[in-house]
Amino acid sequence: MATSPSGSGRLTVAERRTLARNRLIESRLTPNAISLTGLALHVVAAVLLLDERWILGGFAFIVGSVCDTLDGRYSRMSGKGTSFGAFLDSTLDRMEESIILCVVAAYYADQGDQAAVLGCAIAIASSLLVSYTRARAEALGVECKVGFANRAVRVVILSAGLLLAEGWFFGDFDALKPAVYVLAGMSSITVLQRILHVRRQLLQV
After folding, report:
1. Taking burial as the number of CB atoms within 10 A of a residue's CB, which of 53, 91, 122, 140 is the most buried?
2. 69 inside domain
3. Are 202 and 143 in contact (CB under 8 A)?
4. String of DSSP letters for 101-139
């Protein structure tokens, strides 16, 4: 039985967390491995969604997105992060989101729903621009985190849409299409917010 370093008996919750964290840091696990695991899970999600297995695909997407969150935190915590790792992480995040939305677009194209396909296209473009505007602004020396459609918010919206697609939980209600429209609208607004924010900041220089 593990005992506390202080000799007070069993390990406290905080001590167990510290021990687990230290063992993880000492392992061979790298942030890039977590990033690539996230990509693999998104590919699995895409395959499941192509077969219209919405709930399984939704859960695979969620777990893959959790990996996307953990790789950055693990990088900072372990000190194993590299410049290439940060580049890979950001690139894969954009790729994964686009893969899932492309699959959703393909589904609506097969249904002959042109409006939903257009919504997916706008969601893809605007989501990429949300990230691009921040990166470009920071290259100009302007911090740009304004807007409400950040990566975490977009993941929540898309996850809800996938899990509630085709009325799996609420009868005939299909939440996927509304999720696509909300994602497209919020991301587009966020892009505009960031453009205006950067303009204001640069005019003050």
Report:
1. 122
2. yes
3. no
4. HHHHHHHHHHHT-HHHHHHHHHHHHHHHHHHHHHHHHHH
Q: How many domains does the chain have?
A: 1
pTM, entire model: 0.82
Of 63, 90, 64, 86, give the one whose Cα is nearest residue 76: 86
∠ Cα 169 162 172 (to 5°): 35
CATH number at residue 60: 1.20.120.1760
pLDDT reported for residue 132:
94
Helices (H) and strands (E) in the chain, counts: 7, 0
Segment 140-155 mean pLDDT = 92
Give me 105's structure tokens: 């677009």
The verdict on whether 93 is a catalytic residue reads: yes
How far is the CA of 201 from the CAs of 55, 189, 191, 197, in angstroms?
A: 43, 18, 15, 6
Catalytic annotation, pick one of 68, 93, 113, 174: 93
CA count, 13 A, side-chain hemisphere, 33:
6
Q: For residue 123, what are the domain limits?
A: 29-203
